[in-house]
Structure formats: structure tokens, C-alpha cells
Design a protein that fits this description.
alpha/beta; ten-stranded mixed beta sheet; eight-stranded antiparallel β-barrel; 31 helices
Length: 873
């Protein structure tokens, strides 16, 4: 899919944008960034952050109590311990109101001198406080680690991992159902397991799950997962997406980085005095600029794939811009860590030069070495264990070299992914080996480690929430406007430009990685870290809803029916008869049921008039982090397999088309396909929920409720009897409209397979009218239409006769109740579905009339399907 994103409109846009216009754009953007950086540094270099006073203290004041804990984020200080209070540090004066240990409140006014003794007053009492020890690292517990045996430690680690994975799966599933990226749900789960929720409502559970000796182990595993995740991200960046649009994509991407970075430098001026830790202004301002300019390529790629936008100009340019943005972001992060890690300009320059040499060596030498992997893959068709081990070693050693240079270790892992050979099969094979464990196990550990550092409850003052809203506003305005204005300047329409700005505003997991590095380096304070985490969540979660507002009709997405229209039709020369104008769509949710569905569809396609078989196969993009290349590979493989079945059908004289496509809303897309005027019937397979007595849900429920054509849902059996004289086609028939639709399908299947057809009706008694008359009428219609005779079978419905009769069937074709939307299958149908050994087709009549639908209202309906629970089977 990624390899096929080029489109003519985008190529035309690219040709219109270049030369003087491109130069003028870059000059304007560069000037804006340069002015912002110069202004920020000129104003900020003379400023100083609040002195670092956080730690544990002992006090002489009775109001404060003996033991104090001061937790600081810039000027904002929270007092806890024997007494509590929200304090403000201005200059060398710490002021505020405290709740005394002995009760009541008092005004606090202390003068500080570094971490030496504090002196001043608390109420009318003279007070002093002496520094005892430093606070633990963010996310770590202040409690003393418990001594455990190695076996006990292992057990507690397994419990912590299990809790993380369970929470990640649950919250990720919920966010996916809300049409949000699942990865952000897993991020949210990690935050909820920290002090924000679990630590606030049940601190004992949080401390038990994540004790002080287990958190470092989780953090170490998370860092390993993060390194290999960045390797996967680097491998996902495909240079082919930049072909024919490098100038336009680069301008949009660079502007969407430069504009918010400039605003980040400017907003750093007031934030520095308010919330910065004790660090120089330049690294702080640089990190603020980087934090504002991030775009999460993996999350954006998932959105584009799920909305099928990659073949459209907006999606293609966003994908290309995000790829460039991602590389730019990691380069800026390397620069920021180099600047933050040293106090000397000469050493920072040395680190930057070494990083450049390392990157060049990997691109020039490392890529050639890894190209041998491509040749090895061609020879055996898979990545050998030896080569897989070599890739592991390369990722780990590159991360080590990057760390030794003085930049983020994950930068080295990202570079290895960037220089990997680009082959769809090779990339899919390597990704599959790494991704399952890294993404499903190790990466959620990073989310919970981040969650342990995130304390939304620490934003306990209105001013802090106002600052959070301000940072969100700056981030949205900078990224959205930067990308939108650049896209508009380069030739896109206003709506398309707004969509590009919305997509580029997605920050996601990439932002969290940058923030964690900034916190570990001491560049951002804990409260500022929490604010920026909230900003990352908000800007990512808002992408989907804003995109739906901008493009409510999904005109920027590729319609699923467009792929069907592109599919190759059979010709009259191939099938030896005129190509049918009507069709039957076969949509197997489980590929294992496709052959059974085709076997049932084939006799229907041969009926009068003949119909074409359309095979639609969905590919669910369930990889929530990476996978654009793998999705394209899976779609291609699915189309190749469907093409074999298409050729078989054509050889038997049946017209057929095939289409495979990605979707996260299969039910909605099935309905769109079924809404095509030539589709008379959609056949799909049901999952276990269909066997219950409730209303069918999911894709099946959506198709049953919304498709305008007839619908047949197959409930397959593991061991199914073969159709024949001993196993006839059976139709429980009561004369309802859906019963007629079921009888229509059953008649054609029985006629084509030379199988007896039995109609089952209710015998007289127990409140039921005898069904003999309506069965005779139906038999006559079947004889006239399909040329086959039927055998009526009257059973005692209330006594369980229907279920007993169904045990002989080779295929049961059952019409839904007229009230299926409220009662679902109902008790009798549910009992048949559970106990009958034969496969079952549940049929629902659509709004389009069928061949057997009665033309008048004088056909009596019988209530065999309306038996109340407990009255029958």
C-alpha cells in the first residue's frame, strides 16, 4: 500500500510548486524561526530558574511537624508530610498557606539559601527547616525496597507485567471502539495505573503492583522495548513515499516543524521562570521547541491506513511529510540531548560532530552490510535465525554507540531501522519476528513507566491548568497552522490543507519518548512533564474527530467500492455466456469459511437470471504502531489467493470479481459494497455471538440492519454432513417475508445440487394454526419457479419437533423473525443454531424485492418462530 500511494493529482500539485515559490517559502519560514530563536535566547539568557529546593526536610516548627517533603516544579512547591500546603517560590522566598500538623492553618514565609537551613516564620512561630535527603527519581517510590529472593522478585515482576498487559488490552480495546488509535489507549492505561488514578483511589494496590524494587526492572525492559520499537519505526519509513513529491512534502514537513518550534522557543520565555528545573535556558528552550514540533509517524500512518487515505493526495503528502518529520525529530532530539548533556559549547559541538559521523557511517557502510540480508532472503525466502541474531546485535550495539557519543540511545536503534533493506516480504518477515513481543509486551511497560512519572493530580492549582491549556493551544496552533499554511502555499485547497494540518498535529508515542528523555535529563520538571503528556494525549485524540468534521463524507478517503469497481471483470469469451449485470457478494470474515460460502453461492449464481460472484476480503489493520508495508503485503497476498478462486469460478462458467481492502469498520464497508445497485445478495459468515438469543451485533448486526439487499449469514460446523438424499435442504417456513427469502435461496441451492427440499411447518395445536395450506402454496411457487418439488413436514413446534427434524438436514436455511431487530434470533432459532449438526444460513429479506416474495397480502403467516421461552425447544 505504501508503495502505491502516488496519484496523478498529487503529481500535478508537485509540478506546480517549485522554483522561486519554494525558495520564497523557505526564506519566510527560516526568517520566522531565526527571529523567534534569537528573541527567545536574548530574553531568556538573562533569566534564572527557581533554585532547586525539592527534598526531605526536618523542621523545628510545631505547625510543620518534624518531617517535611517539598516537591518542586519551578516556582510551584507542594508541601506534604506532617503538614500540607501549596507554596510558591519567588526569588529566595517561599510563601503560602499550610495546614498545620496540629490543626488549623498558618501563613508560611521562609527564606532559603540553596539546600541549607530555611529560616522564617510559620504563623507567629519562628521556624527553620534542614535538608535531610533528596527525592527519589520521578516514578520511583520513596519507600525503602523490600529484600526478596530472586524467585520472589521474578514472581512480583511477572505480576506487574500481567497487570500492565491486562490494562493495556482493556483500555486499548475501548479506545479502538471509539475510533481512536489503540496505542493511545494503551498509553492512557499506563497513566491510569500510576498515581493519577490507581495511586489516588487505591494507593496500596499501586504500591503492591509496582514496589520500589520492581519499577527499575520494568524500566529496563521498557527501554529495551523502546529501542526495538524505534528500530521498527525506522524500518517502516519507506523512501518510495517521497518519489515525485520530495520538494512539496519536505516544505510542508519542515514548515510544520519550524513554525511550532519557533512558538516553543517563545513560550519557553515565561515557562522557564515558572516551571523549569534548575537548568540553563538554552537546553530548556530547545526541548520546548522540539516538544512542540513532534509528529508521530506511526500513529499518523495507522490513521491513514484505517481511513484508506494513502492513495489520495492528502494522505500521500501527509505520509511523506510525517516520514521527513520523524527523521527531523530524532535529529533534533540528538541535538537537544547533546546540548543538555554538557555545560560547554565545545563539548556539545563535539557530540554533534560524532553523531553526524556515526549517522554517515551507518548510511554508507552499515547499509551495504545489511544489503547482504536482502540477498540471503532471496535465496531461502525467509530471514534465518543467524541473520535475525545479527539484526538484534546491530540494534543493541548501535544504541550503545549512540549513548556513548552522548545522544539518546534509541537514536542508534532508529538508524539501524532506517538503513534496513526495503523489500515488502523481507520487511514483513523481520517486523513479524520483532513486533509481536516488542509491541504487545515490552512497549506497554514503557507506557506504565511513563504513567508512574505522570501525576495529573499534581496540577492542583488553577494556574497550572491554565498553563496546560496554553501549552495545548500553542502546540495545536503551531503544528496545525504551520502544516496547513504550508500545504495551502504549496497548492492544496483549503479543506485539504486543514486535513493535512490535523494529521500532522498527531503527536502520540513519539512525543512521550521525547518527554521521557527530557525528564530523565532534568530538562523538564515533573509538573511540566505532566502538562506536556496531557498535551500529547489531547492533540492525538483530537485528530480523528477533527478530521471527521473537516471531511464528514470521507471524500479524502478512497471509497471501498472504488476498489471493487477497479477489479477486473470476466469477459464473455472467458465464461462463454453474456456477463451478468447482477451480482452476489461473498464476504468471509473468517477466510476458513470462504470455500463453504462459495459452494453455497455458486448454485445461486447459476440461477435464473445468472449472477456474478463478487468476493470481498477485508484485512484488519490490527497492528497499532507500525505496519503500512505489511498491510500492503497482506492485501496483495489476499488478492492473490482470491484470484485463484476467481479463475476456478471462471473455468466453471461463472463470472467473478475479487477485491481485498483494509478496514477497521468491516460492517460499514460491507454495507457500502452491498449498496451498489447490482448486488442482490450478500453472504457472510457469523461468529459465536450470532448463536445467542440477543440481537446480532458487530459486522453481522450492522449488515443485517443496514444492507438494502438480501442477506444470508452462514453459521458453519466443524463436521458438516454432505448434501444428498439422506441430508436434504430444510427450510422452517411460516410464510413471513424473511421466510420467503430463505425459501428462494434454498430452492436454487437444492435445484443446483439435486438435493431434496423439505419445508417444515407447525402442526395444528398448542395455539398454532396448521401450516399445511401455506406449505402447499409455497411448494407450488417453488415448482413453478425452480422446477423442483418439495416435501412438507409438519412438526410439533412447542414439543421440540422442529429441532428434532432439523437434525436430518444437510443445510438449514432459516428466515429471520419479522421482529429480529428487537428479539434477535429468538429462542427457537437460537436452539436450532446451537443443536443442529448442519450448517445454517440465516436469511433476511432486503428492501429490494426477491423472486419468491409474495405479490399479494393473502398468504397467511404462521407463528412457528414466535414460541415463547419455555414453551418449546
Amino acid at each position: 500500500m505504501t508503495a502505491s500511494v502516488a496519484s496523478t493529482p498529487l503529481a500535478e500539485n508537485s509540478t506546480k510548486f517549485g522554483g522561486r515559490r519554494l525558495i520564497a517559502g523557505y526564506v519566510a519560514v527560516s526568517l520566522f524561526l531565526a527571529v523567534a530563536v534569537v528573541v527567545s535566547i536574548a530574553i531568556g539568557k538573562g533569566r534564572h530558574p527557581a533554585p532547586a529546593i525539592g527534598g526531605f526536610y526536618s523542621s523545628t516548627a510545631s505547625c510543620l511537624g518534624k518531617d517535611l517533603k517539598l516537591q518542586q516544579s519551578g516556582q510551584f512547591v507542594d508541601l506534604s508530610g506532617s503538614s500540607t500546603g501549596e507554596l510558591r517560590l519567588r526569588g529566595n522566598h517561599l510563601r503560602g498557606t499550610v495546614d498545620c500538623a496540629s490543626g488549623g492553618t498558618a501563613a508560611l514565609n521562609l527564606t532559603i539559601a540553596g539546600k541549607g537551613p530555611f529560616a522564617g516564620t510559620v504563623g507567629s512561630e519562628q521556624a527553620s527547616a534542614t535538608f535531610v535527603k533528596a527525592l527519589p527519581e520521578p516514578g520511583a517510590s520513596a519507600k525503602k525496597p523490600v529484600k526478596r529472593t530472586s524467585e520472589e522478585t521474578f514472581g512480583r515482576l511477572m505480576l506487574a507485567i500481567a497487570a500492565v498487559l491486562l490494562a493495556a488490552r482493556l483500555v486499548g480495546t475501548v479506545t479502538a471502539r471509539l475510533s481512536q488509535p489503540r496505542v493511545m489507549g494503551e498509553v492512557l492505561a499506563g497513566i491510569l495505573l500510576g498515581p493519577t488514578l490507581l495511586g489516588a483511589v487505591w494507593p496500596e494496590a499501586k504500591d503492591y503492583l509496582f514496589p520500589p524494587d520492581i519499577v527499575p526492572l520494568l524500566s529496563a525492559a521498557a527501554q529495551i522495548g523502546l529501542a526495538f520499537y524505534l528500530f521498527l519505526v525506522g524500518m517502516e519509513l519507506d523512501p518510495r513515499v517521497l518519489r515525485e513529491r520530495i520538494g512539496q512534502a519536505a516544505f510542508i514537513s519542515n514548515t510544520s516543524v519550524a513554525f511550532p518550534m519557533a512558538l516553543g522557543f517563545l513560550v519557553a520565555i515565561p515557562i522557564y521562570k515558572l516551571l523549569a528545573p534548575d537548568i540553563r535556558y538554552l537546553p530548556f528552550a530547545l526541548f520546548m521547541g522540539v516538544a512542540m514540533s513532534i509528529t508521530a509517524f506511526p500513529v499518523l500512518a495507522r490513521i491513514l491506513i484505517e481511513r484508506r487515505m494513502l492513495r489520495r493526495p492528502v494522505g500521500a503528502i501527509s505520509m511523506a511529510g510525517a516520514a521527513i518529520d520523524d527523521v527531523t525529530a530524532w535529529g533534533l532530539l540528538a541535538l537537544a540531548t547533546a546540548v543538555a548533556g554538557t555545560g560547554k559549547a565545545t563539548h556539545a559541538i563535539q557530540v554533534i560532530l560524532l553523531a553526524a559521523i556515526f549517522t554517515a557511517a551507518m548510511l554508507l557502510i552499515g547499509r551495504r552490510l545489511l544489503n547482504r540480508l536482502s540477498k540471503a532472503y532471496d535465496e531461502v525466502g525467509q530471514v534465518s535465525v543467524l541473520w535475525l541474531g545479527a539484526i538484534f546485535v546491530c540494534v543493541l550495539l548501535s544504541a550503545y554507540v549512540a549513548q556513548q557519543i552522548g545522544i539518546a540511545a534509541i537514536f542508534g536503534a532508529f538508524i539501524v531501522g532506517l538503513i534496513m533493506p526495503r523489500r515488502a516480504g523481507l520487511t514483513a518477515d523481520v517486523s513479524r519476528r520483532f513486533e509481536n513481543f516488542v509491541v504487545l509486551v515490552l512497549l506497554p511497560l514503557f507506557f506504565v513507566v511513563t504513567g508512574l512519572k505522570t501525576q495529573v493530580t499534581a496540577l492542583n492549582r488553577p494556574v497550572l491548568w491554565l498553563l496546560t491549556l496554553a501549552l495545548i493551544g500553542v502546540a495545536v496552533v503551531g503544528k496545525f497552522l504551520g502544516a496547513m499554511l504550508a500545504a495551502r502555499f504549496s497548492g492544496f485547497k483549503l479543506r485539504d490543507s486543514a486535513a493535512i494540518g490535523t494529521l500532522m498535529n498527531t503527536r502520540g508515542l513519539t512525543e512521550l519518548i521525547v518527554l521521557n528523555i527530557g525528564l530523565d535529563l532534568g530538562v523538564v520538571s515533573t509538573q511540566l512533564f505532566t502538562m506536556l503528556v496531557v498535551m500529547a494525549l489531547v492533540t492525538t485524540f483530537m485528530a480523528g474527530p477533527v478530521l471527521r468534521l473537516i471531511d464528514p463524507r470521507r471524500e479524502l478517503s478512497e471509497p471501498v467500492e472504488e476498489g471493487l469497481r477497479r477489479a477486473r471483470r470476466a469477459t464473455q469469451e472467458e465464461i462463454k455466456v453474456p456477463v451478468p449485470t447482477r451480482s452476489i457478494m461473498v464476504a468471509a470474515q473468517d477466510p476458513a469459511n470462504l470455500d463453504t460460502l462459495l459452494a453455497l453461492a455458486e448454485p445461486l449464481a447459476k440461477a435464473t437470471p445468472p449472477r456474478e460472484i463478487v468476493i470481498a476480503q477485508v484485512v484488519m489493520p490490527d497492528r497499532f504502531v507500525t505496519g503500512a508495508l505489511r498491510d500492503a503485503d497482506e492485501v496483495a497476498n489476499a488478492e492473490e489467493q482470491l484470484e485463484e478462486r476467481r479463475r476456478d469460478l471462471i473455468q466453471r462458467g461463472i463470472a467473478a470479481r475479487v477485491a481485498a481492502f483494509t478496514t477497521v469498520l468491516p460492517g460499514q464497508d460491507y454495507v457500502r459494497l452491498a449498496s451498489e445497485q447490482e448486488v442482490d445478495l450478500i453472504m457472510l459468515d457469523g461468529r459465536r455471538p450470532l448463536l445467542g438469543e440477543g440481537v446480532p451485533r458487530g459486522a453481522v448486526g450492522q449488515v443485517l440492519a443496514q444492507a438494502p439487499c438480501d442477506v444470508a449469514v452462514l453459521v458453519e460446523r466443524q463436521e458438516r454432513p454432505t448434501l444428498g438424499p439422506g441430508h436434504p435442504v430444510m427450510v422452517p417456513f411460516g410464510g413471513g417475508d424473511h421466510d420467503w427469502a430463505a425459501l428462494e435461496l434454498a430452492a436454487w441451492i437444492a435445484a443446483a445440487t439435486d438435493t431434496p427440499l423439505k419445508l417444515i411447518g407447525a402442526a395444528n395445536g398448542n395455539g398454532h394454526r396448521d401450516a399445511r395450506r401455506v406449505l402447499d402454496s409455497a411448494s407450488l411457487v417453488v415448482q413453478q419457479l425452480a422446477g423442483i418439488s418439495t416435501e412438507p413436514l409438519l412438526v410439533d413446534v412447542a414439543g421440540g419437533g422442529l429441532v428434532a427434524a432439523a437434525e436430518e438436514a444437510g443445510l438449514l436455511v432459516v428466515g429471520l423473525s419479522d421482529r429480529w431487530k428487537s428479539e434477535g434470533l429468538g429462542p427457537v432459532r437460537a436452539e436450532i443454531a446451537k443443536k443442529a449438526p448442519a450448517p445454517i444460513l440465516f436469511v433476511r429479506r432486503g428492501s429490494r424485492p426477491g423472486a419468491l416474495a409474495p405479490r399479494s397480502g393473502d398468504v397467511t403467516k404462521f407463528a412457528w418462530s414466535y414460541v415463547r421461552p419455555g414453551a418449546g425447544a
